[in-house]
Amino acid sequence: MAESRLTASAGVFDFFKGNHVEPAVAIELRGPVFPPSWTSDTFLGFAPALGVLATGAESGFVYATIEMPFAFGANKQYEVSFSGGISAYEQGDSTLDMGGTAQFVLGASLNRGLANGHRVGLTVRHFSNAGLHNRNPGTDVIMAAWTVPFGQR
């Protein structure tokens, strides 16, 4: 089995607009990376991921994405990753009306590998329904992340 990763994150929900700012926590499981069919020194391939994000107002998202990680730096200790996928929103007690349950998610993260194989980093995600519903405010979250690998390395 190839390496998978479990990431725990904490940060701020709706931080760009500031209308519904709430604390947020997330947990994400990223599966193994499927390498590209061509040779690349930096592009690692594609990886499926599943996550749950909850806010202080008992609202949240469940999401599934495909990540595209790129490694760089000495010993490839840095990794930047871009992701996109689908999500479901539950408003809970939040005043943020996302227009409906069905949403899309885009994300970017920057991580640094540590000697023990763990990673620390920063993640930014944007949630929006892309016009599927009459109301489409969109929102963003920024989080500090701690990632633990498991499986074969």
What does this structure look like?
By secondary structure, this protein is mainly β. It has a single domain (4-150), classed as Porin (Beta Barrel). The protein has no helices and eight strands. The protein has strands at residues 4-13, 22-30, 47-55, 60-72, 78-90, 102-113, 119-128, 139-150. Strands 1-2-3-4-5-6-7-8 form an eight-stranded antiparallel β-barrel. The model has no long low-confidence stretch (mean pLDDT 92).
Strand order of the largest sheet: 1-2-3-4-5-6-7-8
Query: Largest sheet, described in full?
Result: 8 strands, antiparallel, barrel
Structural class: mainly beta
Q: How many β-strands, per DSSP?
A: 8
Overall average residue pLDDT: 92
Which outline best applies? globular
Distance between the termini: 9 Å
Total of DSSP H or I helical runs spanning 4+ residues: 0
Order of helices and strands: EEEEEEEE
Q: Please indicate the count of domains.
A: 1
The Rg value, from CA coordinates, equals 16 Å
Helix content range of the residues, please? under 10%
Q: The CATH topology, please?
A: Porin
Low-confidence stretches: none
CATH architecture descriptor: Beta Barrel
- Share in β-strands: over 45%
- CATH class reads Mainly Beta
